[in-house]
Amino acid sequence: MTAQNSPLLLELISPWLREARWFPAKDDPAATLSVLEVIDLPDPLEEAACTVVLVGLESSATGSTGTTVLQVPLVVLPAPDAGPGRAPVPGEITTLGGDSLLVDGPHHPAFLRAWLAAAQGISKPDSADHADSADMAELDPTTGRVHTGEQSNTSVRIDTRDGARSAILKVFRVLAPGANPEIDMTSALAAAGWRHVPAPWGWFTCAWPGSEDQTTDLGVLTDFVAGAEDGFELACAHARDDRDFRGPALDLGRRTAEMHTVLAEAFGVTSGAHAAAGLRERAQWALSAVEELTPWRKAIEEATDAVGNLPAPPAQRIHGDLHLGQVLRRAEDWFILDFEGEPLRPLAERSTPDQPLRDLAGLLRSVDYAAAIGGAPPHWTAQVRDSLVEGYLAERPETDLRLVGALELDKALYEAVYEKQNRPDWLPIPLEGIRRLIEEQAMTQNTPSPVPEQVLQAVAAGEHYAPHDVLGPHLADGVVTIRTVRHLATSVTIRTADADYPAVHEYGGIWTATLLAQEVPDYRVHTSYEDAEAVTDDPYRFLPTVGEMDRHLIAEGRHEQLWSVLGARVRRYPSTLGEVAGTSFAVWAPNARAVRVVGDFNRWDGRGAAMRVLGSSGVWELFLPGVGAGDRYKFEICRSDGSWEMKADPMARATEVPPATASVVEESTYSWDDRDWMRARAATDPHTGPLSIYEVHLGSWRQGLSYRDLAEQLVEYVQWMGFTHVELLPVAEHPFGGSWGYQVTSYYAPTSRFGSPDEFRYLVDALHQAGIGVIVDWVPAHFPKDAWALARFDGTALYEDPDPLRGEQKDWGTYVFNFGRNEVRNFLVANALYWLTEFHVDGLRVDAVASMLYLDYSREAGQWRPNARGGRENLEAIALLQETNATAYRVAPGIMMIAEESTAWPGVTTPTEYGGLGFGLKWNMGWMNDTLRYLAQEPINRRYHHGELTFSLVYAFSEQFVLPLSHDEVVHGKGSLWERMPGDLWAKLAGVRLLLAYQWTHPGKNLLFMGGEFAQNCEWAESRSLEWGLSDTAPHAGVREMLRRLNHLYTASPALWAEDFSHEGFEWIEANDGDHNVLAYLRKGRGEQLLVVANFAGTTHEDYRVAVPCGGEWTEVFTTDHSDFGGSGVVNGQVVAEEVPWHGRAQSVLLRVPPMGVTVLRPAQ
């Protein structure tokens, strides 16, 4: 049988097909059929011809806009002898020309043999809870018996040849592309060792019609549960006789909850979209398909709309079509079958995570069916329903049952459509259920719903994800019910402006009071304990402090003021009883089961401070009256396994002094005095101005100083030295001082080692008023593994990348951020904006950019995973850096974003609109390494390394560079700058003076780490102050004085900074005199030009001729060899250009070039 004779084939099978119980368009005479594909299944014994015909169905009755694909297995047999009274052959469809018979495949052994031969076998789970499955070869197809009564598939029981075992072959009649949930769900449950599901033996898959890369499952073979009773028939029998069914129902509720737990572990849990949208859509579908629902349209729409006010519990994979007909009872236990989901729903929708309570709702609806068929009295139905719920809650006590009614209604509407299309006589059963559910809602919507004991238990323990739904005030029908948690209280009274209302202890520390009112009044809670009394505001009477738009922006990763909604915020609300002051807490922890606030204010017992999760955002929130600035706190996170862990607030704006780890509530009262600076900053491009940066580690510049002390001493010193900016090693809180701040645990909190956040503001303000800009080192590349901080924050890899080949930086023992996750990206981008706006910081130096850009950074082959394009670039990190830079420059005009990037990555300082990373400046690590390596050579040997000195000018204008002599160059055995210079004391000091002057006159901005300005003679250590006594000795004081004067020359000379990033600002005069170790070059800018001559030799060059661009007098404006600086006093004063061609120019001058010194000359005015 082939596709070529498909018109004849359709003509033969159409009458039988349209009457088949599983045909989804029986009521649509206009439905059209077509043959999509014919698949031959060879019978191993060649007794019959077997094929699988895939039939396309076009019908409005299916609810689908596309083609519905049906599976019709066919067997062609020789026709039996015709004669009067011939018994029909099982599964007979029609005769073919009188000599052949067409039979529905599942009814014939030939098809069963062919299916078993073609099926793909799978392995049984290695679990003692499941008996080993038999080999499919042991099955005897001649024993096949088709089950009657199935509505959407065809199942066949097949015994083994010895009769000891049986299997069930389920043939899917309505197909869809992709894996059938019957297969992956039962496989996962069996693999987990859950013994209450028949394990699969094998399945059969073929290509989806018209597709080269999609498949569809045609059927599955599973264990047959021998000796079991059908759950629905069992319930009907008990209903018929009014026999007690509570015990089995309790067990079934437990098993259903266990199944959900196993499925959650196997497939994971998501925050999920709210159920309301899907309910409304399906309600409209049912209303359009079943006209009998029309009288209840308004009530149905109101009921589904009301679901939007409920919190959305976590979603997961579920059974999807669970009812009593899908379960078997054997030996006082239950087995759950048929995981396909509701057959009228698309396969993709059936595999989508959903609310677990949908399965419980399905069982409850099935109880109504059993009661209706068995004619049970109302008390029987109520008892069985209650027992199902009780059993479920026994395993999952945290479950909020308020969605069950809405999901029951959803299920009943689905049943109404199904019965209307397939079993019209059964339609009254779901219609009665819909009527009852609507009437129950109408009776209860104006009165408080009773709270199940299990929910009260979870709320009292602080373990519920929506405590506000139980606690606080609830107004219904003129009655305000107020519940409050007060553990160990002896009495509780609700106090309003008009009266006191005594509360009654309800459960486990929960007290309840009621009062008549048409609106919720202001109230406070008066609590008596054995030895004290307290009057407090109720935290559960306040509206959420995080709005819907905030949650939307957080989920999108676009909240540019994230610190204003998450973390701890002091708030004040008006009240008729007096102002309510307190602190709102909000934290993102999407995978937490519950979150509590703990701190000094509740003696670190968070049972009365459980937070609520806001919709599907993963944001938890609570306002705690009475909590104020200075209070210590943490979040207590309940992880998926039920364990609790205390965590510091990721958004904390203040912390305890390390090694203590609590977060601290902070409220800024600082008033800035740097308005002129900030106004000028916004109107200025700092990249084109003078930039000499003094890099400072606050803890060791002078030990023991606070932010306020530094605002006096550091500001005075930096201003006197003439630096334009300070760059602070990371000031964000970090637990280990030895990390120098580069292992951050609180990204939004200035370290409390030196004072409060407002005192840090005072330091920045003082620097600005002194005309000094502030740059802060920022570390978005990685964070430490401290268990109390960001690491596995909600029990999962939340802030860190979950991929083990990307999520860890082994060199530093840290985690790498998940740069591709919206909320994590938002956390980092907003953090950059926080420092730039809240603390008026003028720039961020981004640490370890290279480790972010490359997936294989410091990783061997096999230790990293390529990106989606097969490359080594970290595409998500690149996007983060681009977004951070673009947003920072937009939000805070006049700031600088500086990259510490040590590779040749192109376009680091190219704007993002041209595909670059968008930084304003990049550290020139090549210049630093080459220069220090060159200067480490003895002067006599430097001629052989001259290229190292000049190479930086080859690429000097490819990026916008900062020349860094940073903290990294004076630690870990490298020695101080002084120590790295060869020679005696004088030579070392001269070498440092030479290095600094060469740096300041080279194209690029300048950065020097503290101590370098006076040539400290030992490495830096964060555990001690700089050697300030050394700086007062004449030789070292001379170096400092030289740099001080050089800074003033630098800022006053546009030639040294106006064209740092352009060839227009630099011109070689002499680049090739390696024999004399001399460089000569012009610096130019804004109409000014300076001649720089640098001698890296240890001897003076007398009468050294250098070309000049113009004639006349040239004045020496600076020399490192001045005696004031500890030099040898080789100076030039004024020189006159001579008409002596040199270096390709018409004029030149003769100079005395000092040993290991730099001379700077300017044309006389």
TrEMBL record:
<dbReference type="InterPro" id="IPR040999">
    <property type="entry name" value="Mak_N_cap"/>
</dbReference>
<keyword id="KW-0418">Kinase</keyword>
<dbReference type="Pfam" id="PF00128">
    <property type="entry name" value="Alpha-amylase"/>
</dbReference>
<dbReference type="InterPro" id="IPR044143">
    <property type="entry name" value="GlgB_N_E_set_prok"/>
</dbReference>
<dbReference type="Pfam" id="PF18085">
    <property type="entry name" value="Mak_N_cap"/>
</dbReference>
<keyword id="KW-0320">Glycogen biosynthesis</keyword>
<dbReference type="InterPro" id="IPR011009">
    <property type="entry name" value="Kinase-like_dom_sf"/>
</dbReference>
<dbReference type="GO" id="GO:0043169">
    <property type="term" value="F:cation binding"/>
</dbReference>
<comment type="subunit">
    <text>Monomer.</text>
</comment>
<dbReference type="InterPro" id="IPR006048">
    <property type="entry name" value="A-amylase/branching_C"/>
</dbReference>
<keyword id="KW-0808">Transferase</keyword>
<keyword id="KW-0547">Nucleotide-binding</keyword>
<dbReference type="GO" id="GO:0005978">
    <property type="term" value="P:glycogen biosynthetic process"/>
</dbReference>
<dbReference type="InterPro" id="IPR017853">
    <property type="entry name" value="GH"/>
</dbReference>
<comment type="pathway">
    <text>Glycan biosynthesis; glycogen biosynthesis.</text>
</comment>
<dbReference type="GO" id="GO:0005829">
    <property type="term" value="C:cytosol"/>
</dbReference>
<feature type="active site" description="Nucleophile">
    <location>
        <position position="847"/>
    </location>
</feature>
<comment type="similarity">
    <text>Belongs to the aminoglycoside phosphotransferase family.</text>
</comment>
<keyword id="KW-0321">Glycogen metabolism</keyword>
<dbReference type="InterPro" id="IPR006047">
    <property type="entry name" value="GH13_cat_dom"/>
</dbReference>
<comment type="similarity">
    <text>Belongs to the glycosyl hydrolase 13 family. GlgB subfamily.</text>
</comment>
<dbReference type="GO" id="GO:0003844">
    <property type="term" value="F:1,4-alpha-glucan branching enzyme activity"/>
</dbReference>
<protein>
    <recommendedName>
        <fullName>1,4-alpha-glucan branching enzyme GlgB</fullName>
        <ecNumber>2.4.1.18</ecNumber>
    </recommendedName>
</protein>
<keyword id="KW-0328">Glycosyltransferase</keyword>
<dbReference type="InterPro" id="IPR054169">
    <property type="entry name" value="GlgB_N"/>
</dbReference>
<dbReference type="Pfam" id="PF02922">
    <property type="entry name" value="CBM_48"/>
</dbReference>
<dbReference type="GO" id="GO:0005524">
    <property type="term" value="F:ATP binding"/>
</dbReference>
<dbReference type="InterPro" id="IPR013780">
    <property type="entry name" value="Glyco_hydro_b"/>
</dbReference>
<dbReference type="InterPro" id="IPR006407">
    <property type="entry name" value="GlgB"/>
</dbReference>
<keyword id="KW-0067">ATP-binding</keyword>
<keyword id="KW-0119">Carbohydrate metabolism</keyword>
<feature type="domain" description="Glycosyl hydrolase family 13 catalytic">
    <location>
        <begin position="695"/>
        <end position="1050"/>
    </location>
</feature>
<dbReference type="Pfam" id="PF22019">
    <property type="entry name" value="GlgB_N"/>
</dbReference>
<dbReference type="Pfam" id="PF02806">
    <property type="entry name" value="Alpha-amylase_C"/>
</dbReference>
<dbReference type="GO" id="GO:0004553">
    <property type="term" value="F:hydrolase activity, hydrolyzing O-glycosyl compounds"/>
</dbReference>
<dbReference type="InterPro" id="IPR013783">
    <property type="entry name" value="Ig-like_fold"/>
</dbReference>
<feature type="active site" description="Proton donor">
    <location>
        <position position="900"/>
    </location>
</feature>
<dbReference type="InterPro" id="IPR004193">
    <property type="entry name" value="Glyco_hydro_13_N"/>
</dbReference>
<dbReference type="GO" id="GO:0016301">
    <property type="term" value="F:kinase activity"/>
</dbReference>
<dbReference type="InterPro" id="IPR014756">
    <property type="entry name" value="Ig_E-set"/>
</dbReference>
<comment type="function">
    <text>Catalyzes the formation of the alpha-1,6-glucosidic linkages in glycogen by scission of a 1,4-alpha-linked oligosaccharide from growing alpha-1,4-glucan chains and the subsequent attachment of the oligosaccharide to the alpha-1,6 position.</text>
</comment>
